[in-house]
Q: What sequence folds into this?
C-alpha cells in the first residue's frame, strides 16, 4: 500500500491568527536577542529560532518556496 502525504490547508482566519502569533514572537525574540552578546550560543540559537519564525510566517502568508525571507546565499535558484 502506498502512503500519500496529506496537506493541511489553513483557512484565511487560521492563517491570519498564526501570522499574528508568529510576528509577535518574532518581535519578542528580536528584542531579547539584542540584549545577549553577539556570536554567543544563545544569540545563535535565537537567530535560528527567529529565522524559523520568519519561514513559518511566509508559509502562513502563502509565500511558500519563494525563499524571499532567506539570506541571498540560501535562496533556491530560480530558472
A:
Amino acid at each position: 500500500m502506498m502512503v500519500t502525504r496529506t496537506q493541511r490547508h489553513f483557512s484565511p482566519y487560521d492563517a491570519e491568527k498564526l501570522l499574528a502569533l508568529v510576528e509577535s514572537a518574532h518581535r519578542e525574540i528580536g528584542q531579547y536577542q539584542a540584549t545577549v552578546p553577539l556570536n554567543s550560543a544563545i544569540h545563535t540559537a535565537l537567530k535560528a529560532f527567529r529565522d524559523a519564525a520568519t519561514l513559518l510566517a511566509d508559509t502562513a502568508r502563502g509565500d511558500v518556496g519563494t525563499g524571499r525571507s532567506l539570506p541571498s546565499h540560501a535562496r533556491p535558484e530560480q530558472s
Summary: The two ends are 36 Å apart (CA to CA). The chain is about 55% helix and 0% strand. Residues 12-62 form one domain. Helices lie at 12-33, 41-61.
